[in-house]
Design brief:
The chain is mainly α. The chain is 61% helix and 0% strand. The radius of gyration is 19 Å and the shape is elongated.
Length: 100
Amino acid sequence: MTTRKKHSTTFEELKAKVLASPEARAAYNESQKTWKLREFLIQARERAGFTQTDLAAQLDVSPSNISRIENNPDHANIKTIFKYLDACNADVDFVIPGNK
């Protein structure tokens, strides 16, 4: 009977190794932006007290469209994002780093 050797590499070490490549780092950073937008949309909907079905009815679209927007916000039209946020009574402030 053979025993498996446990890995001694931590997640953070593995992540650092993988992200050492500029291409991988750029892809990771891009995915982080998408993730933040996704979280922002869901948080706006939930703070408004809407389920996906409620918001879909508000926007006169199917619940699957709301799910699609939340899961892939980088594929949604900016006007669609603004309509979504308006229905949730949420505002967006755009900030350029370094400007006050």
